From TrEMBL:
Name listed for the protein in its UniProt record: Choline dehydrogenase
Residues binding substrate: 438
Family membership noted in the UniProt record: Belongs to the GMC oxidoreductase family.
EC id: 1.1.99.1
Keyword Electron transport carried by entry: no
GO molecular function list: choline dehydrogenase activity; flavin adenine dinucleotide binding
Organism: Microbacterium endophyticum
Amino acid sequence: MTDTLPREAEYVVVGGGTAGNVVAARLAEAGLDVLVLEAGPDFGAEGSEAWPADLIDATRLGRSHDWGYDSGSTYPWPVRFERARAIGGSSDFNGCTQTWGHRRDYDSWAERGLAGWSADELSPLFDEGTRRMRVRQYRPDELTPWQNAWYEAAPFVGIPQVPDLNNLDEAVGFAPEAVNIQDGVRVNSAFAYLDPARGLHNLTVVGDALVDRVMIDNGRATGVVVRHHGAVHTVYAHTVILAGGTYNSPTILLRSGIGPYSQLAPLDIDVVEHLPGVGENLHDQPFLLMSWEGSDEMTRAMAAARAAGWAPDEQAMGKAASSFEHEAFDLHFLPYSPTHRGDAKRWSIGTSALQPRSRGFVRVQSADPEAKPVIDHRFLSDSEGVDVAMLVEGAEILRELAASPALAPLVGPEIHPGPESFSREALVAHIYRHPDNYWHPVGTCAMGVASDRSAVVDARARVHGIEGLRVADCSIMPQIPRATTAMPAIVVGERVAGFLLEEAMSR
């Protein structure tokens, strides 16, 4: 950690988030000169007293140091899109659930002509990411009473209990989660990847360094323009790797003149490379949270679990298939029981449609790097209504579960969406009126072959038309995997780092 901004570096990694820290650490460990520029603070190594309590407390979601992004005026009320503006990025905020998805997710990328991204090629990287992130799996006897109730009842609706969630060939099942938690601490990617490399002389990490844009000279990235402590600086680089995430990487490209003419010209941003796909293809898995009144028995049991000292909000997960899915699964079930609300408890489980059809966009409103972008996921906008139909089927399965003999006495009456939405038509209307997200945005700098005019980067994460510029985060995913995207983001970092190291060794 330093407060001094170097004038140049061989590799500049823009964003010390989930994937960016993986890339930076891997390059530095190989002896390459690396500079990490993080827009938020760098709190130092694991154990530093500077770390905010909510960012390391694994029993709940992080909240501080948020970018403040939301849906703006696109819905009747704002839908928040929480992203951490701090070293560690969204690995500071998440619920620590680590899922991989299904083989078809990654094989479908490879079938698009994206060499190096098949499930078999990525599987060792999932294993390595799991090791580095200190992922462990809960045992069934560690589940809180609320989590265990849904896990035990799952077979009632034909969802088997399975050993874990991360067999890439597995379809439906309910299992205790695999989590990146150690001694109650959320193990973010800064702890797992950056900390072991912090002592290297060839790695520099600078916090509160907001990258405005990438400098392009004759079709090559030559460095970045950075705002640091109120001053504007230029940092030169041989290679720039954008790892700002699905919302920030495309906005940096747009401010750099890389994107569609139609967006850049009205903002007086000189177009360097016309790439229509920058900021497009935004998608996340739509989500529906359902809640029940609970029962005296469940209240007593959860109070005892809290008194015992460990009762996290998330611990188990189910995978199920809607009528639209014939290969694997396309629904998640996520029991959720906040334990820090005092008397205002909420007994909940959510369902998410993992393969959404709807697509939205991220766009800049000005060339000011502090100006919030327009983020419109266009949730539930697919013309055939498949996204809503998947959520409806998920809700119906959960209602069937809640009515089972084992669960009904524990969960009590449904209070959200509630009895007024018991008909399918009313439930459809409720979901359209209450769009929500699963916190897994992807796709705004999508990978694709050169002939695909919607693609932003190629299979090696190189920005089309610009030398020396990469993107390494979830924004390059052309289609979201059937997963929570924390571990897939780690794998993206590992994969892109591998490409960079191959090329460095061949120079």
